[in-house]
């Protein structure tokens, strides 16, 4: 066993601890390591992994994960919880999405490479532990700092893993998402470039275990309502996994979620990019449904004259809208769904 799993095996029932998983060192000799927190219940049961700041500036997830594990009632808990408050410590310290050492997106590098570049080594060290012990993985993210977005869910479906879509959607519904998006792992024209199949949740799902992402607002700033929303969702997931009996307070997320429920599932989505550079002024908020011809926003030139009005030929659901007005041609100014459905989840 490796460090985290060995530490968890030694941990006494109904207790907590913390530690660091060493990866290497910087040029000056400072240790590169992954911090982790452990919580073990009084009784045996499932193991829940929660990872945050896979991208180093997505801090809402870190705060939600810390609040979640610190408020667990270990005397009532079955199983264990492992929280990685930052899965990308070099990027976290730099307050950037990726580590400055190599610029790789760690969430495209899993399961990692033990002899690879720095980010690949961090991914390999973490995933080696995740793969050994864990029944469910929840990866907490946020959208880019330039955007405003309500919390929403993202999931992938591994073709060779027996993880039911309805199971993932049920867990995602616990976070009260504005929408849930099925993310294709084969590159699509409207997706951002990159190796989507290298995400930690996709690789964990390849092991035949449920894993998904929750986007909690935007990067580089604390949004307390979204942090709290994430904490409530994590508690509901823990109850659903059987870690708690579900007889607690519903308002705090400790009661057993009712069977069924509904989510707004995005069937097709795309990033909207600027055709003209200048100053973008959003004319909508996340969650708005724009009819054909209604503006997402306008772009003015540096003199203040409107040079483009961004509209659509079809209805769109606004997932996120840009709030940083300074844009060049090709910059993202919106993230929208072009097809969606109200998905009824199976009942009892």
Automatic annotation (TrEMBL):
Residues 45-220 form the Succinylglutamate desuccinylase/Aspartoacylase catalytic domain. SUPFAM superfamilies: Zn-dependent exopeptidases. Its cofactor is Zn(2+). Keywords: Hydrolase, Metal-binding, Zinc. InterPro entries: AstE_AspA_cat, N-alpha-Ac-DABA-like, N-alpha-Ac-DABA_deacetylase. Signal peptide: none annotated. The keyword Nucleotidyltransferase does not apply. The keyword Zinc applies. PANTHER family: BLL3975 PROTEIN (PTHR37326:SF1). This is Succinylglutamate desuccinylase/Aspartoacylase catalytic domain-containing protein.
């Amino acid at each position: 066993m490796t460090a985290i799993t060995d530490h968890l095996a030694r941990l006494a029932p109904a207790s907590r601890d913390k530690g660091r998983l060493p990866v290497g060192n910087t040029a000056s000799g400072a240790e590169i390591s992954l911090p982790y927190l452990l919580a073990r219940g009084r009784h045996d049961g499932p193991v829940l992994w929660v990872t945050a700041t896979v991208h180093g500036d997505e801090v809402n997830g870190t705060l939600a994960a810390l609040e979640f594990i610190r408020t667990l009632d270990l005397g009532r808990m079955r199983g264990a919880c492992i929280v990685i408050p930052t899965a990308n410590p070099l990027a976290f310290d730099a307050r950037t999405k990726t580590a400055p050492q190599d610029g790789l997106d760690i969430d495209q590098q899993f399961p990692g490479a033990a002899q690879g570049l720095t980010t690949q080594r961090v991914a390999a060290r973490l995933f080696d532990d995740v793969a050994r012990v864990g029944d469910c993985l929840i990866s907490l993210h946020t959208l880019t700092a330039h955007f405003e977005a309500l919390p929403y869910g993202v999931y992938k479906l591994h073709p060779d893993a027996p993880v039911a879509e309805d199971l993932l959607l049920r867990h995602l519904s616990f976070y009260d998402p504005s929408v849930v998006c099925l993310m294709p792992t084969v590159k699509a024209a409207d997706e951002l470039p990159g190796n989507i199949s290298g995400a930690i949740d996709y690789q964990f799902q390849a092991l035949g275990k449920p894993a998904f992402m929750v986007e909690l607002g935007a990067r580089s700033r604390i949004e307390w309502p979204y942090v709290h929303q994430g904490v409530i969702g994590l508690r509901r997931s823990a109850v659903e996994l059987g870690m708690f009996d579900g007889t607690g307070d519903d308002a705090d997320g400790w009661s057993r979620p009712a069977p069924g429920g509904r989510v707004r599932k995005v069937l097709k989505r795309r990033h909207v990019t600027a055709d003209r550079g200048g100053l973008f002024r959003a004319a909508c908020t996340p969650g708005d449904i724009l009819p054909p011809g209604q503006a997402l926003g306008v772009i003015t030139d540096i003199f203040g004259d409107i040079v483009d009005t961004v509209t659509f030929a079809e209805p769109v659901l606004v997932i996120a809208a840009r709030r940083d007005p300074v844009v060049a041609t090709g910059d993202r100014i919106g993230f929208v769904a072009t097809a969606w459905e109200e998905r009824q989840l199976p009942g009892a």
